[in-house]
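Many introductory courses stop at the sequence. We go one step further.
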Amino acid sequence: MQIHNGANSPDTITQERGVLLKLLLKITLYYIVLFGSLTVLLNFSPVVIDHLPVGGVSELSGGADLEISQLEEAMLSGDLDDEGFDALQADDQDLSSRFLFSDARSLFFSMLGSLLLMLPVAWVYKAIHRNGEHDHSLDETTLILPAVVAGIVMVVQHSLALAFSLAGIVAGVQFRRALSDTFDTLFIFVAIAVGIAAGIKALDIAVVLTVFFNYSALLVCVFGDGLESHHAAERKRVKAETKAAQAVPPTGEVK
């Protein structure tokens, strides 16, 4: 968050760095409490791991190939006739009817997990824009956006028709809000990535993504040259002070 400008004193730069370093410590403590609580919960009830939305990437990469290979083996061996196929479908329907709310429960845990992971991201956004021009609604947007994306992904991931329908709906909605800083785009990308990871039950990937992003963003702002929004705010402040100074008449003159 460092801004190299003659109007900024070294004390101001040191103060900004101190705020970001305190946030770095706060986020570290948050992760310790969060992952520590999860570890304690798993130690007392190991069965909880079966209901957590993790491991989705491995399931996507290996699950489809396994199902296709099993189906091919059954068809080649002649074990899967029409009656067997109907029985298999009936078993799937019975199983799905027993766990009618399994998808809803999984979506709830995915949304809750994405919200907990995006809290530090919102803190980082507020901290690095304390003295700069920014969109004040973006931090709330990045906080809720992953949960919405997770729900959308969970709905459309098994249907190509729904995916194309969603694309058509989104294409009909025009977003014309310009961001004040290109760095803000990263926060939108992180929110979407966390939402997609939560939607495919891969919150373990979202954990790595958010932890890396938070620490790297803070370190870049601490040791970097400042964001463009900071420089823009500083230029506007200097311009306003210069204009105000020019408007004041010299001593002894009546304007």
